User: Which sequence fits this backbone?
């Protein structure tokens, strides 16, 4: 079984940072819990990126457990490229801007 390489684009890193701070401001420690949940999703999608639903052309979405966020990514050869980590209520049209 192949474990895919993970590449998180700067925009997705910024999404994670923003969400971390928002949750941390709500309740100390909740930001860290959010990041752990995202990490669990990333581990899963690195093992089997094809298991998640295509939502637009080649962009797939993995949902983050316990938090209303989706990890939007592409698979290119053996690399998973994370484009965005967005709240479920954010407009997914933002992905068109970020898609390489």
Assistant:
């Amino acid at each position: 079984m192949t474990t895919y390489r993970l590449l998180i684009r700067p925009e997705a890193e910024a999404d994670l940072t923003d969400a971390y701070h928002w949750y941390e401001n709500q309740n100390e420690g909740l930001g860290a819990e959010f990041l752990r949940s995202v990490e669990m999703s990333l581990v899963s999608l690195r093992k089997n990126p094809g298991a998640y639903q295509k939502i637009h052309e080649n962009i797939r979405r993995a949902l983050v457990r316990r938090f209303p966020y989706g990890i939007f990514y592409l698979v290119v050869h053996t690399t998973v490229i994370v484009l965005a980590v967005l709240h479920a209520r954010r407009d997914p049209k933002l992905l068109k801007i970020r898609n390489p």
Remarks:
- Residues 5-98 form a domain with the YaeB-like fold fold (CATH 3.30.2310.20).
- The beta strands are 5-8, 53-56, 59-63, 69-76, 79-87.
